């Protein structure tokens, strides 16, 4: 079957220029915009010409304002479409929109002058109505003599003040507007004084009611354990339901009292406890019913009781039957007594779902008390004060909609659209400079993704073959270590630790560490991790030490490589895992590459630093004896830089170990994989165990490498080993 080749595209070919992006934007989006704006202006003109009420003209003006603001936002498009050389102007143009806007402005102006008399009449009527309502409410507030009256009158004051605020632009043209604001402030202060007066008595009454409910809840809580029949359960559930209904219906009133939270928590606890008790009663009845047929077989009866104890935690089994499970006569008698007791109490008719549904309803009370608005006098007073302050602010800042102001405003809106059409090129650049990078970035991402996919399809197999020897080495090395008997492995690890540290304490600690890991059944993943860390460290040394030597020879090379090392250390691991996994899939090799990228910078930096810190006198002495560059490097510089180099080795090993868990996310086996599984499934013991194994490995590698570096330092200073 023939396979169609996947078309490939160069990154450079698919990066459109900013001009092309701009043209695409105009054709696909902005042409629709200019047509919609023109049609909107036409529609508003028709509405203005047919308006018969001044308030209709105000609403049309509001829509005109939105249209003008939209034009300012789309100034770049209007600029483009105002150019006669632009072929799009044959379809629609900014000049046509401006013409429609001017017609709209003229229509609104004519209608405003025609219906202007309505404004004065309506505004005066509205002002007088608000004035009378405030005076009436002020008298009612003055006659308040109870907390309930404070709460009830709030329902009349709040909508009035909101209405005044919403219609402030009609009222501010009145000569007595400031007097209306003062009356609103006086009404708010009156209400605040009354609320303050009756707040204490209100809280006292609410406290008594909440306390009474709390007492009922405590009484019912004490009855839960004594429930012994279906009738008692039904009565108990009904009382809980009544308390819940009362707490819910008066939630806005009770919320302000500090003890209401404890009341809801107690009611919730009562509901949970009752639910558990009813479930226990039903389970007890079911178990006893299942035991009745076994009365003639004591062995089977005893076994059934034990099984019931294992399967669940039913009180009658644990506290009554299990203590006499081996006393066959007593056990049979007790089962018969319980069956008779349950039958008398109609346990079979108990409905668990009733209390379960009630429990859900009670549970929602907590959310109700959190979201509902409080209706205590202090909270209501604060709301009225805020509304009063809002009215004052609106009267100071809102634009009036009287005819004279409106006519001037229409001209302003027309000018705003005209300015948007004639805005300067420099202003367009400043206001829209950010749009070009965004568009280029989006197209660049698409092109990079496409090109990378093409690259992986074309060269992925070749790249995998390049890394096959490395994969073979890793697999064989791991198999060798796994095939090695553990005593031999421990002796080998101890010998390497002794050669590196010459310390009995370190040697014994290394052997004990490996033995503990194996004893806790983590030997195989530990070997996988050791294989990965050892191979990664060898690769880092093989590449990093020559690179550090090269950096030490040239300041230019150092300035070139240092930023690359900075990126390798600071870039998040997942960023470079993505291309590696896309190229090589998941497995050991991608994990090894990720570990090497993260762990290589320390050995490169410290090799470079160690060679650069070699004493100049030593170099001058080598030159005096006629040493070549190779002789100076291998007999003077590297030996004297070994303490720094081994510090780099230590850091490389530690950073490689820190990548163990991250590498497990791309299929690398070892100690990190169980840790990842523990995190995903919340297995605390598994995560802690394997995490401590990783810590043990880190301590082993750290102590051995540090001890060897210390010996090198002593040798350099002339101390006897």
Provide a short characterization of the protein structure.
This protein is an all-alpha fold and about 725 residues long. It has helices at about 20-50, 55-75, 75-80, 95-115, 115-140, 145-165, 170, 175-225, 230-250, 250-255, 260-290, 300-310, 315-320, 330-345, 350-370, 375-395, 405-420, 425-430, 435-485, 485-500, 505-520, 525-555, 555-570, 575-585, 590-610, 615-625, 630-660, 660-665, 670-680, 685-715.
Tally of helical runs: 30
H/E series: HHHHHHHHHHHHHHHHHHHHHHHHHHHHHH
Indicate the CATH topology of the largest domain.
MetI-like fold
The share of residues in extended strands comes to under 5%
Q: So what's the oligomer here?
A: single chain
Calculate the terminal CA-CA distance, rounded to whole Å: 74 Å
Low-confidence stretches: 1-12, 14-28, 717-721
CA-based gyration radius: 43 Å
The CATH homologous superfamily of the largest domain is called MetI-like
Q: Mind telling me the CATH class of the largest domain? A: Mainly Alpha
Question: Could you tell me the number of beta strands?
Answer: 0
| Relative helix content | over 70%
Globally, the shape reads flat
Query: What's the main sheet like?
Result: none
Examine the secondary-structure arrangement and name the CATH architecture of the largest domain: Orthogonal Bundle
Mean pLDDT over all positions:
81
Overall domain count: 3
Structural class: mainly alpha
């Amino acid at each position: 079957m023939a396979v169609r080749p996947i078309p490939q595209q160069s990154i450079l070919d698919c990066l459109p220029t900013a001009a092309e992006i701009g043209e695409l934007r105009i054709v696909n989006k902005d042409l629709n915009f200019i047509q919609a704006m023109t049609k909107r202006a036409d529609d508003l003109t028709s509405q203005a010409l047919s308006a018969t009420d001044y308030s209709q003209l105000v609403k049309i003006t509001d829509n005109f304002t939105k249209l003008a603001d939209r034009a300012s936002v789309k100034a770049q498009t209007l600029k483009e479409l105002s150019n006669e050389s632009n072929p799009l102007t044959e379809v629609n143009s900014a000049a046509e929109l401006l013409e429609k806007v001017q017609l709209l402005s003229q229509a609104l102006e004519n209608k405003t002058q025609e219906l202007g008399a309505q404004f004065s009449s309506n505004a005066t009527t509205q002002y007088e109505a608000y004035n009378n309502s405030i005076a009436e409410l002020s008298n009612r507030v003055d006659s308040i003599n109870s907390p309930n009256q404070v709460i009830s009158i709030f329902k009349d004051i709040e909508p009035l003040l909101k209405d005044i605020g919403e219609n402030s632009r009609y009222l501010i043209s009145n000569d007595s507007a400031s007097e209306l604001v003062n009356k609103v402030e006086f009404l708010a202060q009156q209400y605040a004084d009354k609320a303050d007066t009756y707040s204490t008595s209100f809280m006292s009454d609410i406290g008594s009611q909440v306390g009474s409910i709390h007492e009922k809840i405590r009484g019912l809580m004490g009855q839960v354990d004594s429930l012994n029949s279906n009738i008692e359960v039904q009565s108990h559930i009904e009382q809980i339901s009544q308390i819940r209904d009362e707490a819910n219906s008066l939630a806005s009133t009770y919320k302000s009292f500090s003890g209401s939270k404890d009341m809801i928590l107690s009611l919730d606890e009562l509901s949970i406890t009752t639910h558990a008790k009813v479930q226990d009663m039903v389970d007890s009845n079911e178990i006893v019913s299942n035991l009745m047929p076994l009365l003639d077989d004591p062995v089977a009866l005893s076994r059934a009781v034990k099984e019931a104890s294992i399967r669940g935690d039913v009180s009658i089994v644990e506290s009554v039957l299990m203590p006499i499970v081996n006393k066959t006569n007593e056990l049979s008698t007790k089962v018969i007594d319980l069956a008779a007791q349950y039958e008398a109490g109609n346990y079979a008719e108990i409905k668990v779902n009733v209390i379960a549904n009630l429990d859900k309803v009670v549970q929602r009370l907590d959310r109700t008390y959190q979201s509902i608005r409080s209706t205590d006098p202090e909270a209501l007073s604060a709301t009225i004060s805020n509304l009063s302050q809002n009215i004052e602010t609106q009267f100071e800042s809102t634009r009036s909609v009287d005819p004279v102001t409106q006519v001037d405003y229409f001209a302003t809106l027309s000018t705003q659209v005209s300015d948007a059409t004639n805005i300067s090129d420099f202003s367009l650049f400043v206001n829209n400079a950010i749009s070009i990078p965004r568009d280029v970035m989006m197209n660049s991402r698409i092109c990079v993704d496409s090109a990378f996919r093409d690259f992986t399809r074309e060269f992925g197999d070749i790249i995998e073959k390049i890394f096959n020897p490395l994969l073979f080495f890793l697999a064989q090395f791991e198999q060798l270590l796994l095939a090695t008997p553990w005593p031999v492995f421990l002796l080998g690890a101890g010998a390497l630790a002794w050669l590196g540290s010459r310390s009995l304490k370190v040697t014994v600690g290394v052997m004990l560490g490996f033995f503990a890991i194996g004893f806790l059944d983590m030997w195989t993943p530990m070997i996988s991790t050791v294989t990965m860390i050892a191979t990664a460290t060898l690769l880092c040394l093989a590449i990093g030490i020559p690179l550090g030597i090269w950096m030490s020879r040239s300041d230019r090379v150092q300035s070139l490589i240092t930023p690359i090392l900075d990126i390798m250390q600071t870039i998040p691991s997942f960023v470079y895992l993505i291309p590696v996994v896309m190229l090589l899939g998941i497995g050991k090799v991608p994990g090894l590459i990720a570990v090497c990228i993260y762990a290589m910078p320390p050995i490169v930096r410290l090799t470079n630093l160690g060679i650069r810190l070699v004493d100049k006198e030593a170099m001058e002495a080598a030159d005096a004896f006629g040493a070549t560059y190779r002789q100076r490097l291998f007999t003077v510089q590297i030996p004297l830089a070994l303490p720094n180099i081994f510090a780099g080795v230590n850091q490389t090993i530690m950073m490689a170990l820190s990548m163990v868990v991250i590498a497990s996310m791309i299929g690398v086996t070892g100690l990190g994989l169980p840790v990842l599984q523990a995190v995903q499934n919340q297995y605390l013991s598994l995560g802690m165990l394997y995490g401590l194994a990783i810590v043990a490995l880190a301590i082993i590698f750290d102590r051995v490498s540090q001890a060897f570096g210390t010996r090198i330092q002593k040798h350099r200073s002339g101390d006897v080993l």
